[in-house]
Amino acid sequence: MEKIKLAVERARTAFNTGKTRPLEFRIQQLLALKKMIKEKEKEIAAALMADLHKNELNAFSYEIMGALGEIALMVDKLPEWAAPQYVEKSIMTMTDETYIHREPLGVVLVIGAWNYPFILIIQPLIGAIAAGNAVVLKPSEVSEHTAKLFEEILPQYLDKELFPVINGGIPETTELLKQRFDHILYTGNSTVGKIIMEAAAKNLTPVTLELGGKSPCYIDKNCDVDMACRRITWGKFMNCGQTCIAPDYILCDPSIQNQIVETVKKTLKEFYGEDMKKSPDYERIVNKRHFKRLMGLLEGQKIAYGGETDESTCFIAPTILTDVSRESKVMQEEIFGPILPIVTVKGLDDAIQFINQREKPLALYVFADNKKIIKRMIAETSSGGVTANDVLMHFTLPCFPFGGVGRVFLSPGFTDTIDGTSRVIQAVLTGLRGLVAKSHFCKEFCHFFLII
């Protein structure tokens, strides 16, 4: 464990030399990271296949492409973002120069997640580098092949002292949390999030937590149900349902429940074929522990479609549940797997009440042709982001902050949003459906202070 302490100390010593402060150095490191991604694309895709059965196309579309796009954006915009921000003067400072200056926080700890093990480490790393920080990276040990690859290739391209990679499980993470950092970012579950908050409190370290949640889809009975089901099917079952903003469950009128089931079934066969176990496009559950957790959620449920499983390969077929009780176990926790419950509601009022009786979701999806319905859902609920007539798309805006509200997302930053929340209203969007990183990570890892 001594090597962990030494790695953090070396990162702080390197940061204190001031080498990260010049924009030229930051841009050089970002371009080196871009070079790494391009030169090691095959190895990255192979690691993702080994960890999650993610094929090369999905690896590029949902993880690699987003990182390259984020780097390009940072390199292009960094001189503008790093420049002094001049602010309005008061009557007492009319003759003074007043502006906001940005400086790096120092040494940042990034603890990644296993479901998108590449992009969820690279994404905050890009922002932290752009902001001028040293970064200690802790990939998730659950996606062990991707974690090992990070440890192997990152030192070949980035400054070894400033950007160390620490691999391991609970003991290594525990030791890391004993060290003093200037900011900690963690993506994962709330149990670990609480442990990180407790450890950070000892040093009053700012923390950003992205903890997920149950993201509902409300389908109005008068909308284009076929279109809604097609888009929900894509967003729900990509990465085998292991996406933090994946549609978690559907709320709908009882009169369209059967239509939804049949349309989702038809779409699944179109996407993955008749035998989904043989599909090269359908991922697997990350390990047997999560497989067994999901099997527990299926107990006592009415399976309208799917339900096939193979524990030896962590395969769970896309599964639709109907007539789901509001009090059932599957409705009490984030599913994070290929299980889609349908809960019937009496109408919009009932749907809004149902959503508001639970923890605030990380994402909320509403499908309706009537704009008044969409506006009511936005006005009368609270969530991390809203996408109308599509799913996941609010995450594809690189210049907009991504986050949640309340227990699903905690951050001292993003001060240009309300209560740490970004709510995006989008019309039907077409085109590329890739996940793009958030440029606001650059702001998250900066200290803003006023100079007169």
Automatic annotation (TrEMBL):
The active site is at E210, C244. SUPFAM superfamilies: ALDH-like (SSF53720). Residues 2-406 form the Aldehyde dehydrogenase domain. GO terms for molecular function: 3-chloroallyl aldehyde dehydrogenase activity; farnesal dehydrogenase (NAD+) activity. It is a single-pass membrane protein. The keyword Acetylation does not apply. Keywords: Endoplasmic reticulum, Fatty acid metabolism, Lipid metabolism, Membrane, Microsome, NAD, Oxidoreductase, Phosphoprotein, Transmembrane, Transmembrane helix. One of its GO terms (biological process) is fatty acid metabolic process. GO terms for cellular component: endoplasmic reticulum membrane. InterPro entries: Ald_DH/histidinol_DH, Ald_DH_C, Ald_DH_CS_CYS, Ald_DH_CS_GLU, Ald_DH_N, Aldehyde_DH_dom, Aldehyde_DH_NAD(P). It comes from the Eukaryota. Pfam families: Aldedh (PF00171). Its main location: endoplasmic reticulum. Homodimer. Belongs to the aldehyde dehydrogenase family. This is Aldehyde dehydrogenase. It comes from Podarcis lilfordi (Lilford's wall lizard).
